[in-house]
Amino acid sequence: MVLSALFLAFLSTPIGGASTRSTVQPFKVDLARGVPHLQTLVKNTNLPTEPLYPDAGPDFGLDLATLREWQTQWVNGYDWATQEAELNEFAQFTTTIGDQTVHFIHEESQDKDAVPLLLLHGWPGTIAEFLPIIKPLTQSWTDPTTRKNISFNVVVPSIPGFLFSSSPPQNWTNVEIAGLLNTLMTDVLEYSKYALHGTDWGGVVAYDMYESFNTSVRAASFTLIPFLPPSPQDIADNNITLNALENPNDIGLALSDNPVGQLAWIGTGLVRWSDPRAGTGPSTINSTTILNIVSLCYLSGTFQSSVWQYTRNPKGWRTDYVKPATDAPMWYSAFEYNIFLLAAGVCGEEHDFGGHFAGIDNPPALIEDLREMGIYFAANE
Ligand SMILES: *[C@@H]1O[C@H](CO)[C@@H](O)[C@H](O)[C@H]1NC(C)=O
Ligand SMILES: *[C@@H]1O[C@H](CO)[C@@H](O)[C@H](O)[C@H]1NC(C)=O
Ligand SMILES: *[C@@H]1O[C@H](CO)[C@@H](O)[C@H](O)[C@H]1NC(C)=O
Ligand SMILES: *[C@@H]1O[C@H](CO)[C@@H](O)[C@H](O)[C@H]1NC(C)=O
Ligand SMILES: *[C@@H]1O[C@H](CO)[C@@H](O)[C@H](O)[C@H]1NC(C)=O
Prior knowledge:
The protein is of the alpha/beta class. It is built from 14 helices and 11 strands. The chain has a 9-stranded mixed sheet, with helices on both faces.
């Protein structure tokens, strides 16, 4: 493995400095060796048998009964090998850009005119929050109005700090991450123009890319527009105390070898921010999905690095809307149960099913909206 990587690196060494093209190496998820330790920890975690405050509602976090149920399933009804095999059905790669390793899924369409599409995940979703939409997007779909075929070449990177991408340097903000991912698309994969979609933390990065790389990002779609009250002044004026996510080292270290702790922390977000009808209708979110995301996070050892970026970006979520210097259009998809529905004045599609994790909360609706963007891109770029 190491030898072949070195060999590839040697082969790709630019001769006479003529080429700076990065090497791309195939990648397979291979985390089974961590499973016995994970199983031991999960099995040996003693949770209380009764809730301390039975009447405390969801505002106080995950309820004990749910956590205990998930713990039991993790030990007795969950097979990591199956999940790993499902992930490895996607074509995955790593590349090195500067000092950073970037892991990404790259699923190409059979169609030669497919639209390049970059999908940027959030926390705690990881690449797993897009799995149901990737393959359908690569397939040819005929627009009933124009009779034109639309399909995509889909690129889904692990944002730096998540899973198999390296953790960004301590001083990086969304601006440097935006630059890195644009380099992935334009230099490494040689898509000079592309469309992008971002959600949650990935929406912050996507917005930055939309604004900063206006010749390559030619259409952008969001399920969340990253403009958020309150401002730092509002926080000070209203005596708002920042929650534990703002102290990523504390929570990151406290839960680093505590899978049930990570399950509570990540699981509460996945449950509270998605449609309460999760697991029914178009939603693919059930306890297995949640255990998949937490297992990936725990086994790859990236819980701490994945929460780090929130504090690195005090200005990531801007409060004053400034129109970006781009003539590329923007799409906005509103999902009924999403958090931060703060997109006043932006036109878009409204969906009455789904929440914060649209790619697993309501995959068909997100696919439909992305195809609408694809129709525009194919006609104009
Ligand atoms: C368009 O896609 C359909 C499948 O949806 C396929 O049968 C047809 O051949 C495609 N047309 C063109 C012009 O590629
Ligand atoms: C981060 O720190 C490194 C090393 O001190 C420095 O070279 C780099 O310019 C810094 N980057 C940013 C974005 O501040
Ligand atoms: C914030 O705290 C200060 C000092 O305790 C107090 O005077 C002020 O009324 C508080 N403001 C709000 C909005 O609660
Ligand atoms: C969750 O859904 C998947 C299919 O989408 C299924 O394979 C799995 O068994 C479900 N898990 C539970 C606990 O029902
Ligand atoms: C890109 O942004 C620059 C300013 O940052 C602006 O001058 C230029 O017109 C923009 N180009 C497009 C295609 O929007």
